[in-house]
Each structure stands twice: as C-alpha cells, then as structure tokens.
Amino acid sequence: MKDSAFPIQLLNERRLSILTAAGFLLLLLSSLWLYWPGLSGTFLLDHELWIGPIGSHGGVVDWETFKLYLFEEPFKLHNRYLGRLTFLIDDQYWPAPPFNFKRTSLLIHLLNGSLLFALCLQIARILDLSKNRSWGFALAASAIWILHPLNHSTVLYASQRMTVVAAFFILLALITYIAGRTRIVQNPRFGAALIVLSLFVLTALGVLSKEIAIIIPLYVILLEFTLLRNHDRSTLWYWLASIGIGLPLLLGLIYGFTRWEGLFVNSYLFRDFTLTERLLTQGRVLAEYQRLIILPSLEGLGIFHDDFAVSRSWLEPASTLLAWIIHLMLIIVAVVWRHRIPMISFAILFFYIGHLLESTAIGLEIYFEHRNYVPMLGICLATAYYLMRPRKHLKILWPLTAMSIVLLLAFMTRVNTTVWEDPELQIEIALIDHPESKRAQGYWLESLIAKGSLSKANSVANTLIDLSPNLISPYLQKATLQCLTGKDMQPQISKLLMIAPLSGRDTAAAGNIRNLMIASDSLGCLTTQSNFWLELGQGLLSSERFTADVKSAQSAIRMITSYLSSKDMTSVSAELMEETLIKIPSQKLAIAVARIYTYLKNVERAKNAIRIAKELRPPFTATREKSDMTINNLEKKIAQIN
To answer: Can you give the pTM of this predicted structure?
Structure first.
C-alpha cells in the first residue's frame, strides 16, 4: 500500500524531481571534492603486478603491443581482460603518475552511484512507494554508499579498478534484469531480451572485469526470493531463468573444479594458514566488515590488514564460534522472515552472497576492505529505506537524521582521503592502527632509509624480522642497512643464505634485492662475495613456498640474473636462469636462456632451451607469432655457430 503522509508530500512531482536531481548533482560534485586529496597519493601494494605490464614491451603503442599486454603471461590465467583494459584509459606507458588511475576509478565509482540511484527507483516501484519516498530513498541510498568511508580504499587503491568496473556491470545487470522482469508478462519479447542481456552479456562482461561478477545469478535469485516474490512469472520467464541463472552458475562450478588445485590447494602453499583456518577466521572478518558498514569508524581503515589474527580453532579465539553463531542466526532470520521484512532479508542475504567468492575457501589473503564494495549495497539500501519510513511522531526528525548520517560519512571519507594524500602520514597512522602489519612496517622502513634515519630504520628492520622470520625481505633490508652504515656484512649474508631456502611468498623481494644491489654498488660492501647472488637465487628457487607465487619469484630471480649479466658474469647468470626455467617454466625465460647461451656459443644448451621454448608455445596468435620469429632467428644464429 502506498504511504499517504510524508513530510515533503506538498511538493509537486516536478519540483521534487528537480530538487532531487539538484541534490544528486551536488552529491557527485561533493564526492569529487571529498576524494580529491587522495588522488595525488602514491601507488601502494600490487600496482606493479596489475598495472606495470603496460610497460613490458615499451608501452602499449600499437595493435601488437596491445595484444601482448592483454593476453601475455602471467595474466592469461586471471581472465580480467576488461578490467585491465581500463588502465589504458589513464596511460599507455609505465611508470606512470598515479593521479590518472585514481581519477578514473573515482569517476567510475560516481557512475556506479548513479546506477545505484536508478536501481533504487526500480526497487521503489516494486515496493509500491510513493513518488516522494521513491526519490528520497534513491537519493539517500546512493549518498550513503558513495560517501561511505569503507569504500575509499577501493577507489584510491589503484589496482582495485577491476572491482569498481565489475561493480558497474553487476549494477547494470541488476537494473536490466528488473526492467526485463517487470515487463516480461506485458511485453514478452522486450522483457526476454533484457533478461538475456542481463544474465548472459552483462554477466560475461562483469566476469571479464573481475570474477566476483559470476554471482550475478545469485543476486537475481535473491531478488526473486525477496523483493520480486509477489510479481507474476510467465512460462517464458521460467525458461529464461532456468537457463540464464543455471548456465553461468554451472560454468562457474566447472571453472572451479577444473582449477581446483590452483584455487584450493596451491593458493595455500605460500600462506601461513590452512583452508580450515581461513574459513574459521572469515566468521570474525565478516563480523568486522558488518560493524564497519553499520557503525563506520575513523580508526583501522585502509589497506594494511595483514595483521588480522587467524582463528586456529572454534575457540581460539572464542569470538570465532560466537561470530559464526551470529551469522547463522542472521541468515535464518533473513530466510524465515523474508515475507515480513523483505528489505532487511534482502540486505542480509545480499551481503553474504557478495562474499561467497572472496571470503570463503579460495586461498586469498584474510582481510581486504574492497571486498565489501558490492556486498554492502544491500545494507545501504535497507538503511535508506527505513530512514524513509519514520513513525508519525518522528517524521519531523527524518530529514535531520538522514542529513546527519550523510554529513558524518562525508566527514569520515574526507579525513581518510586526506591521509592518502601524504604517504608518510598514511604509514604512520597505519602503524598506530596496525602495529604488527608487516606491509606497513616495510613501507615505514623504506621511508626511513630514504630519509637517512638509519638508526631508527635498524630498529624497524629488527621488528620486521621478528614479525616475519620466514620471509627474505626483512633480511635483505637489514643487509642494506648494514651496508649503508659500514658494518660487517658477513653475519647478515650468512643469515640471508640460510633463510632463502625457507622463505615464504614475498612480493617485495625483487624491490629489496634491487635496493641491496644499489647500496652494494655505491659502497662496495659485497665486492668480496663473488658467489653471493648466485647462492641467494638458488636458495630462493629451492623454496616451494617462495616459488609458489610465480610472478613474485620470477621478478626476484630476474633481478638477480640481470645484475649478474651487468657484472660480466654472463655464464653464472645463464646457470641461474636455466635453473629457474626448470623450476618455473615459461617461454619468455626459455628464449632468454637460449639467447644467452647463443651469445656464449654453447650450442647444446642453446638448442635445449629452444626445444623448451617450442614446448611452451603460447596459445595467443600475437604472442605466438612474435616468439616464433624470435626462435627462428636464434636457430639461424645457432646454425651459424656450427
């Protein structure tokens, strides 16, 4: 039943629509201002992994380099082609300024907010809300989501462009589905076309941005289970729903089973927790996410959450069991009371569905705020919906309450984005909130070394070694400090060579190896250690946990082999490259080994590397043609040696 009385009911519809449009425009402009400080900050975490390949072939300057960027290893297994494609909007060369990448992510975020506004208007019609309440509901929901401080790290963490783009297609798919669903009875062809567009085309585009979009069919089931449960369903809809919902889910399951070992076994090789421990821990993680969505805070937000304590059992800590009991109760309430409180049911189940991929069994890191970018939508909608349903004696308070919430969220977001403007301040605050974060300590150590605060840096290095006794990076950083301060290097070298075979996954290893090389070249602290770099590389290659992260391991070993080659130790470099090829096979590396042995006129080893390169022939035409040409040229040079 439509509501009759409402505080702004005296406004005619045209005036109300104009005021709402003006309010939404003000929201978008205000959001630009709120986020602007953070756009000038630096890149953090895995930008080299996802954005850096733009420069792998001298930039993306023509059709060939475009195809190489999009399809070349190691990304062919990730399938996020569309998400990575959007990086080319910002720059075609690397290194590149971070401002452009963050600016585009912000614009897409605001576009997503606009789609959410449209989705809310559709939901308002489904729930038979009045025009007044519909506009207010849509404006409030989009404002809460756009301005929520929990989303700031998703927007400003440049690599998460893929999450933002996937959210665009998720929202567009839901809008398109509802449009088709509400029309299919009266206009079967048009309604069916929209549903097909949603469940097939937009879902596929979303998955090509990031895998989280594969659960669009589950969001659709949730809509039918809650908000659309009373709408007529035609025979045509049943056919479309069966295929459109079932097929993507089936393909997702097939994909999961075909990559079972990689997703659920190998992904834990370089983690310090097991599958069971991750599942137990996610109960507490999800509870923390919910707390931050419902009761946002200025403390603890950001990207440095690698210090989140792992649950080792149901009672270690005891909050693990309590968290899972609460989650189970919420799900039961949402299912059983879906007829009485459909919007709350929708919000609760939307949150849990949204976390099915990234917060369950796949061996990802324990905690990241960007995983809430889509799942929190339901809670934002429910909050706005009930703000628009005040009891009679509280009607005068609802505009003040809504405005207070929006202003508070805006304030928190502005504070957080301002922190992103100053990388040093960002790390200092992160260390206050997360003193045991290895990443935050690592960035702080780099900052101290750059400023020349070597005594303080030495203390931080010792802290990092205590926090990460089985990672190579803290020991590399300690060795760099020893070199810079002129201290005896031998004890630290011995520790490095001892820890290398035991090292776990270390995405910072390549950068820290480079820093030690620079210090050594400047001060000559490793000139007497002729075999050090070879032994270090061999030690790292012997670590199963270190090499399980192929990209990081390749980067670290490539840094060492390039350095050895530059020091007229080409044969030693070739030896290490050959060992790497056995451990981490790739055609690019095989060609590099063949090239260096051709230069050394070692025909037998050059031919063996060529053979391996042919066995590792890439599936994509552009990459294959270029590598085939390189191999042919090398074979001609080898023939000339004979």
So the answer is: 0.89
